[in-house]
Specification:
Shape: elongated
Helix content: 25-40%
CATH topology of the largest domain: Rossmann fold
Low-confidence stretches: 1-27, 314-319
Number of strands: 19
Oligomer: single chain
Largest sheet: 8 strands, mixed
Mean pLDDT: 86
Number of domains: 2
CATH class of the largest domain: Alpha Beta
Length: 453
């Protein structure tokens, strides 16, 4: 389905949802699980209100407009069993310090970087909704090495994919609504204004519980909070410029991304947006949900997020194989490093690690990118390995010296094995080569003799 058709579907679904009703949903609790603590974290010229709890790999949860970090209580309780969960209120919102400026998302991304620094968290999974998507995407752009996995939920990203078409959606008139006059119009009527979002963007308005509405309306009625909310939207033009410039200069994000849409809201459009800005995207649509996924379908949403984080966790030890599927484009876009574990260590050789870690127990896969006129002397590895030539011309042979052994010229699609302990050598001539290797770590390299050709 093309983006325009999806947008028409979203408009119709939102209009239908606004007319629906159902028995009142049960009140939600905004108490984070025992063991969570509150920290007021100075960062990037402001102070964010942050909840922290659990143990294990870190995950950062970023809320959107109409919510605060309190929206994440169900997910935080689930993840805290095996993650360290970090839940900030965004700049100027919720219980974070009042802020009058700094709402472009590249700047707000630095707010999050400062929180992670203060909590001694070099790297984390990032889960985001609505405006949080935009902050998370900017953070992943500026700090790709700090984002292990990214979850984007039911909102566009300025300047990415069908952004100009998204702006034409009549349900999104509030993107251009703001400024001092609008703030005066809404002052004292925050609940009326917010009910519009909770009703029109729900699959069934009663699925956004009354207790939640009372809670968030009180928070958004505090001084400066509606200003911060309007300012988030007012920054979209700059956000679009920033994202387009970054993608043009650096290409798409390479970490795994889960794109979640509510069936009666963004639906499959979320994946369309994500695929325009990231190489490795998995799609999930939550049945029976509108935009407010955590309020409307918390169990299904929590399960989808936890399943994704578990499936893309660190490679298991031993001979267990984690599910992984990447395209050729994704492999080509993956970051390169120097010659490391599992390679010959030759200067100039570059490595792309596709799976696992050759220095540790368990399966791994890597590519070596070998320049023209490069020789790799005879050597052995402790593990059995399999190799396929991806591109270029690759000259391979078994033996302790290239001059004493037969050389097999291999081009794209050529295959060979590297039995454990068996000396072998390889070289390129006037053309570079890319070779893909798989094995069962730990691997190593031991040179047995100098080779010539």
């Amino acid at each position: 389905m093309n983006p325009s058709s999806l947008l028409r579907q979203m408009v119709l679904a939102g209009a239908a949802a606004a007319a629906l009703g159902s028995p009142a949903a049960s009140a939600a609790s905004f108490d984070f699980p025992p063991g969570f603590r509150i920290q007021e974290v100075p960062t990037n010229g402001t102070t964010l209100h942050v909840r922290v709890g659990g143990t294990g790999p870190a995950v950062v949860l970023l809320h959107g407009y109409g919510d605060t970090g309190d929206m994440w209580v169900p997910l935080a309780g689930d993840l805290a069993r095996d993650h360290t969960v970090i839940v900030p209120d965004l700049r100027g919102m919720g219980l974070s310090a009042r802020a009058d400026s700094g709402f472009d998302k590249m700047n707000e991304a630095e707010d999050i970087a400062g929180v992670m620094d203060a909590l001694h968290t070099p790297r984390a999974d990032v889960v985001a909704h609505d405006i949080g998507n935009m902050v998370a995407f900017a953070f992943a752009e500026q700090h790709p090495d700090r984002v292990a996995k990214l979850v984007l939920m039911d909102a566009p990203v300025p300047g990415v994919g069908p952004w100009d078409e998204v702006l034409k959606n009549p349900l999104l008139w509030h993107f251009r609504f703001g400024g001092p006059d609008m703030e005066r119009l809404v002052a004292g009527r925050e609940r009326i204004y917010l009910d519009r979002f909770w009703n029109e963007f729900s699959a069934v308005p009663a699925q956004f519980p009354e207790a939640d509405r009372v809670h968030y309306a009180k928070l958004y009625s505090a001084p400066g909070r509606m200003h911060a909310g309007f300012a988030q939207f007012a920054a979209f033009d700059q956000d679009a410029i920033d994202n387009r410039a970054w993608l043009a200069a650096h290409g798409k994000l390479t970490m795994p991304v889960l794109a979640i849409g509510g069936e009666k809201s963004f639906g499959p459009m979320m994946a369309v947006v994500a695929e325009a800005g990231a190489n490795d995207v998995e799609e999930r649509v939550i049945p029976g949900a509108g935009h407010w996924l955590m309020e409307e379908q918390p169990a299904a949403t929590v399960a989808a997020i936890h399943e994704f984080l578990d499936a893309h966790a660190a490679t298991p030890a031993g001979d267990r194989l984690a599910p992984t599927a990447i395209s050729l484009d994704q492999a080509m876009a993956a970051p390169m490093a120097g010659a490391g574990a599992g390679t010959s260590g030759v200067t100039g050789l570059r490595t792309v690690l596709l799976y696992g870690d050759p220095a540790k127990p368990g399966p791994y896969a890597l590519e070596i990118h070998v320049p023209a006129n490069t020789a790799i002397a005879a050597h052995t590895h402790r593990d059995d390995r399999f190799a396929t030539v991806i591109s270029g011309a690759w000259y391979f042979g078994y033996g302790a010296k290239a001059g004493d052994a037969a050389v097999k010229p291999l081009t794209a699609g050529g295959f060979y094995t590297e039995p454990a302990g068996a000396p072998h050598f390889a070289f390129t001539r006037g053309e570079p080569a890319v070779v893909r290797l798989t094995g069962m770590g730990p691997s190593d390299t031991t040179y047995v003799a100098a080779a010539s050709h």
